[in-house]
């Protein structure tokens, strides 16, 4: 793992080679985009990154600005700046010479789709994992984050957890407090707009949308499947928004089926 310069930031990154002992150059790199606040690259490292790497694809994981071990500037949490961070990171790593596959979970899926819309030249395909797309999700997310921010602001929860010896939980809680109460993240999210049918129709790359059967976000995925030129919707039974952690096997099968295996790769899970 390393801190990689990306524009004016240093982002915490992890790269995994395609199966065979070194970075492969015969196919697009698979870039994973995690969700908000309590999430970081570890959610993919422990689930999908290994199987994708073993299937022969080079993998890039990174903590988005303000998350995990990446730097936490006070501003810049809107979608356009997040896309600029990604573009700068790809340039720093020498991965901007060919399009990449983007795999985004939850809010990370919204960033993946936004990247495909504003920089279609950089995106080979998009895989959405129960991503926020349409409806009132921005208002709902802003309300949820605001309530969490108020709950953390004067609670002293991080100190209490540290006092109980629960160091990891204390660290995550302190990071969430800093992100929600000492950056413009909530305001930046609130200033965004949902995607529209016109946005979906402009997509130039293939899209795979993997959603839980009981997810509140499924209607947006169905609209995407109707409007996008090339979109496959995969609905996994028995789960809601927790597809990544509770339906990992089915999600992994769908992802690997979409990515395929580069020539000569040995697929093992």
From TrEMBL:
Keywords assigned: Hydrolase
Cellular component GO terms held in the UniProt record: membrane
Keyword Repeat listed: no
InterPro entries: AB_hydrolase_1 (IPR000073), AB_hydrolase_fold (IPR029058), AB_hydrolase_sf (IPR050266)
Highest taxon in the source lineage: Bacteria
Residue numbers spanned by region Disordered: 1-24
Kinase is among the record's keywords: no
All residue ranges annotated as the AB hydrolase-1 domain in the record: 30-249
One Gene Ontology MF term: hydrolase activity
Name of the featured protein: Alpha/beta hydrolase
Native source organism of the sequence: Streptomyces nigrescens
């Amino acid at each position: 793992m390393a801190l990689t310069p990306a524009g004016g930031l240093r982002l915490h990154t992890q790269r995994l080679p395609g199966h065979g002992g070194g970075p492969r150059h015969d196919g697009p790199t698979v870039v994973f985009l995690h969700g908000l606040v309590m999430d970081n690259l570890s959610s993919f490292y422990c689930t999908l990154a290994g199987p994708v790497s073993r299937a022969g694809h080079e993998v890039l994981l990174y903590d988005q600005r303000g998350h995990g071990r990446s730097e936490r500037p006070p501003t810049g949490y809107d979608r356009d700046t997040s896309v600029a961070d990604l573009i700068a990171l790809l340039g720093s790593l020498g991965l901007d010479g060919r399009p990449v596959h983007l795999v985004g979970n939850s809010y990370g899926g919204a960033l993946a789709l936004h990247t495909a819309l504003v920089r279609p030249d950089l995106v080979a395909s998009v895989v959405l994992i129960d991503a926020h797309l349409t409806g009132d999700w921005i208002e709902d997310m802003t309300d949820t984050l605001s309530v969490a921010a108020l709950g953390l602001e004067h609670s002293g929860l991080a100190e209490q957890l540290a006092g109980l010896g629960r160091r990891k939980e204390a660290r995550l809680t302190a990071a969430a407090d800093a992100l929600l109460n000492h950056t413009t993240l909530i305001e930046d999210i609130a200033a965004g707009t949902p995607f529209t049918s016109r946005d979906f129709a402009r997509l130039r790359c293939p899209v795979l949308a993997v959603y839980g059967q009981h997810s509140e976000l499924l209607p947006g995925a169905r609209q995407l499947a109707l409007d996008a030129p090339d979109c496959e919707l995969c609905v996994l039974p028995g789960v809601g928004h927790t597809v990544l952690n509770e339906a990992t096997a089915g999600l992994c099968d769908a992802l690997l089926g979409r990515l395929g295996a580069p020539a000569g790769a040995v697929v093992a899970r």
